[in-house]
Amino acid sequence: MRIPIILTLLAAIATPAAAQRSPLMMPTRDVTITYRLVGGQDGHPANMEMSWMAARHTQRMEMPGTGWSVADHATNTGFIVMDEARRVMDMPASVLRRQLGAPQDAVFTREGTETVAGYSCTVWRYQDGANEGRVCLTSDGVMLRSMITVRGTAGGVEAVQVTYATQDPARFLPPAGYQRIPAPPPRERPAR
User: Fold this and answer.
1) Most buried one in 2, 100, 140, 186, CB count within 10 A?
2) In the structure, what pLDDT confidence band is assigned to residue 13 with cuts at 50, 70 and 90?
């Protein structure tokens, strides 16, 4: 009787890395990360900043020349701010799902550790349908690098500065006086 139980325990321990629990994808404390954009279609590096209010699972992302957005992962809601047009658009669900750097329902395989921006992180390879990528995450859930390949094009972000500090909740609210517009409807896929 004990042999099947022992074999079951050994099989569970020897389960391949892909079956490990998925990594912690959200910071456990407030942080601001400055990233360098790498790859993509034009290959010209640029910077972006991401701030987290950890207790609220809320993320603010600032993109050069585009504006900024807030994703509330506790309520699965968010908005995109276009300062020049003085508009706030509800964030489409498809955009909200991609805010974490890797889909939470992807299959993850632990590959090792690296140091990025002076912090140690664990490298996770993931597969999500036809897309694959790698993320490097600290033990407290800070993404230091995210690289993805979609239809043969690789791109991503790599941290150049990490600052742990309490976030001002006002930075995570839509600006007063801006016109609120709904998210565009999802695009329909053409019939084949």
Assistant:
1) 100
2) very low
- Can you tell me the distance from the alpha carbon of 49 to that of 188, in angstroms, rounded to the nearest whole number? 32
Q: Which residues make beta-bridge pairs with 143?
A: 137
CB 27 within 8 A of CB 54: yes
Name the CA dihedral angle for 117, 40, 81, 146, rounded to a multiple of 10 degrees: -40
180 Cβ contact list (under 8 Å, min separation 6): 87, 88, 89, 90, 174
> In the chain, what are the domains?
23-172 (2.50.20.30)
- β partners of residue 27: none
Q: Do residues 158 and 145 make contact, with C-beta atoms less than 8 angstroms apart?
A: yes
Contact 123, 134 (CB under 8 A): yes
Helix (H) or strand (E) holding 53: strand 46-53
DSSP codes joined into one string, 121-189: EEEEEEEETTEEEEEEE-TTS-EEEEEEEETTEEEEEEEEEEE--PPPGGGGSPPTTPEEEPPPPPPPP
pLDDT at position 122: 96
| pTM attached to this predicted model | 0.78
